[in-house]
UniProtKB/TrEMBL annotation:
This is Sigma 54-interacting transcriptional regulator. SUPFAM superfamilies: Homeodomain-like (SSF46689), P-loop containing nucleoside triphosphate hydrolases (SSF52540), PYP-like sensor domain (PAS domain) (SSF55785). PANTHER family: C4-DICARBOXYLATE TRANSPORT TRANSCRIPTIONAL REGULATORY PROTEIN DCTD, TRANSCRIPTIONAL REGULATORY PROTEIN. InterPro entries: AAA+_ATPase, AAA_lid_NorR, GAF-like_dom_sf, Homeodomain-like_sf, P-loop_NTPase, PAS, PAS-like_dom_sf, Sigma_54_int. Residues 156-210 form the PAS domain. Residues 281-511 form the Sigma-54 factor interaction domain. Residues 141-170 form a coiled coil. The keyword DNA-binding applies. Signal peptide: none annotated. It comes from the Bacteria. Pfam families: AAA_lid_14, Sigma54_activat.
Length: 599
């Protein structure tokens, strides 16, 4: 392959300069590159363009030493003594000047006199001539520089285009008015646009979910969600707008877009390494081992699962593990707490709605959790708290496997595995009419009942050690273990809040501990004062109604401890008003005082 000399890229410009020199001084010009190949010439040199110029020792000297040279009489000149052509030389005089850029020589401009007139003209105007040639050489090096810069820019541009086309995100850059400047392949693909669609088009017209008027109201960066529907292309996602500001001046926008399903996929990929599995569920007792075995079998099917168990027994943990053991693991696991969302919002949360379906509906509509969980698993926690109206809707989804969105024109097919969970007794609820029987049977295809902590006390020491490790690390306290008395207390306690309560007790105790070993002193008063549950179920003594009330209040407080509206949810689950709950807390404050959950 021929390696191109830099000057060759601008040889037309160089030939023009050679002819300009000729027209000014009327002496023929030769311009050579760094290999001494003639790349431009006038008069009799025109036919010799492309030839190697031999013997020109003056050119070499000028090139190597980067100096202008004048040779008055080649036959007498010291410089020409080594020239192989000296005997046949027809030259009367010669002037040459190097073409230099950033201290590197790229070639030489030479003027050769073939008669006395030309030689005299050179001699008499030498300074001016040298100066003129130097200016011409500078002109060539400036052209060369511009050419190199353009080339560099083209390489950068190409690299950038390749980079953009290989990005997961769709990207478009526009001017201050929104006219499209550049976009990547993904952008055209995402919005189903061809080059004609983009020619001199305004992005705010094409993607009308972005309102230009709003874009002036943010400083640098803004994000939003979108729904785009055109030419059978229906995409939903998130967009970010970045303002391009150079030296304080606003120059346009770069907008990137990511499809929601892509974002979810990426999220799942990132989190894959931290996924919880059945192996992370602590416990050696027969009950928990058998439950884990059943859960593993259930993970291989797509049938609906109903997990039951008291609050804090690990229902969500099991649901996540089942998803992570299933072949849906690379798709989303979406959780909905049916008790934490008011009934009027739950419907749109679950099923979503189309744009404009009601006053106040968000632009672009809203994706429901069922759609977000596409090809994955939806975990419907606290299903027993769902209203009868929504139970009917859910039943339809389970039966038809189709979603009927609020304001939607057509139904959407869904491929979602359902895992429901509750701590309520659904059978009793079915009997008293607060839970639909048909829905109960649809959900209860694979039942998994989680044992309470009381039923597997043998696992308590294992759980305590695991939690001491976890929380001492988290709280940066060196706690080495638990003493026998404290351990016995925890083994015998009734654990109405199950593992979540045990976690809270250990966390509290590590915080309070003055020594490296947890003792009774660091335990919360609540688990020491109330010991009515020490005995196994069925053998307990009759308790006073007050004791029962305190216990249920404590259970409710533990359960909703982590929610923002904890008291409100606790009161609701107890079937009393918030004010009543506060009154009772005041009344029993000595009995519940010191309880970590009340803070
Ligand atoms: N076997 C276990 N090993 C370790 N941690 C556990 C185990 N079971 C539950 N946990 C922990 O206990 C806490 C409560 O678990 P989870 O939220 O799954 O319970 P839940 O039954 O869904 O509760 P609720 O009914 O109140 O929603 C979580 O922090 C969970 O990580």
């Amino acid at each position: 392959m021929k390696i191109m000399n830099e000057l060759e890229n601008i040889k037309d410009d160089i030939q023009n300069i050679a002819e300009a020199i000729l027209s000014v001084i009327n002496i023929d010009v030769t311009i050579v590159d760094d290999k001494f190949i003639r790349i431009a010439g006038t008069g009799k040199y025109i036919d010799k363009i492309g030839d190697k110029v031999d013997g020109y020792s003056a050119f070499r000297k000028s090139f190597v030493e980067q100096v202008g040279i004048f040779i008055e009489d080649p036959k007498e000149s010291d410089i020409c003594k080594s020239c192989t052509h000296i005997h046949g030389c027809k030259e009367f005089a010669e002037v040459c000047c190097p073409i230099v850029l950033d201290n590197k020589s790229y070639g030489v401009i030479g003027l050769i006199a073939f008669d006395t007139d030309q030689s005299n003209m050179m001699k008499n105007n030498l300074d001016g001539l040298m100066n003129f040639l130097k200016k011409m050489a500078d002109l060539i090096s400036n052209k060369l520089k511009a050419q190199m810069n353009t080339e560099e820019l083209e390489v950068e541009k190409k690299k950038l285009e390749i980079l953009l086309d290989n990005m997961d995100k769709a990207i478009v850059s526009v001017d201050i008015n929104g006219y499209i400047d550049k976009c990547n392949y993904k952008f055209k693909e995402l919005f189903n646009l061809n080059d004609n669609d983009l020619l001199k088009k305004n992005v705010f017209d094409i993607l009308n979910f972005i309102k230009k008027t709003n874009e002036n109201n943010f400083s640098k960066y803004k994000m939003g969600s979108f729904s785009y529907n055109k030419r059978n292309r229906n995409v939903k996602g998130i967009y970010n707008i970045n303002k391009i500001i150079i030296k304080g001046k606003f120059k346009g926008y770069v907008i990137d877009f990511i499809e929601k399903k892509e974002a979810i996929k990426t999220y799942n990929k990132i989190n894959k390494d931290y996924k919880i599995t059945l192996d992370n569920i602590i416990g050696n007792s027969d009950l928990i081992v058998q439950t884990k075995r059943n859960a593993l079998i259930a993970s291989r099917s797509t049938s609906t699962i109903l997990i039951t168990g008291e609050s804090g027994t690990g229902k969500e943990l099991f649901a996540r593990s089942i998803h992570n053991h299933s072949d849906r693991v690379d798709n989303p696991f979406v959780t909905v707490n049916c008790a934490a969302i008011p009934d009027n919002l739950l419907e749109s949360e679950l099923f979503g709605y189309e744009e404009g379906s009601f006053t106040g509906a968000k632009k672009g509509g809203k994706l429901g959790k069922f759609e977000l969980a596409d090809k994955g698993t939806i975990f419907l926690d606290e299903i027993g708290d769902m209203s009868l109206h929504l139970q009917a809707k859910l039943l339809r989804v389970l039966q038809e496997r189709e979603l009927d969105k609020i304001g939607g024109k057509s139904n959407i097919f869904i491929d979602v595995r359902i895992i429901a969970a509750t701590n309520k007794n659904l059978e009793t609820m079915v009997k008293n009419g607060s839970f639909r029987e048909d829905l109960y049977y649809r959900l209860n295809v694979i039942p998994i009942k989680l044992p309470s902590l009381r039923e597997r006390r043998g696992d308590i020491p294992l759980l305590i050690n695991y939690m001491i490790d976890e929380y001492s690390h988290k709280l940066e306290k060196e706690i080495l273990g638990i003493d026998e008395n404290a351990k016995q207390l925890l083994i015998n306690y009734s654990w109405p809040g199950n593992i979540r309560e045990l976690q809270n007790v250990i966390e509290y105790s590590i915080n309070m501990s003055q020594s490296k070993v947890l003792t009774l002193d660091s335990m919360p008063k609540s688990i020491m004062n109330i010991d009515y549950d020490k005995k196994e179920e069925g053998t307990e003594e009759i308790r006073t109604l007050e004791e029962l009330e305190i216990r249920e209040i404590k259970k409710a407080l533990i359960k909703y401890k982590d929610y923002k509206k904890d008291k409100e949810l606790a009161a609701k689950s107890l079937g009393i008003s918030r004010a009543t709950l506060y009154r009772k807390l005041e009344k029993y404050k000595d009995k519940i005082n010191g309880d970590t959950y009340l803070k």
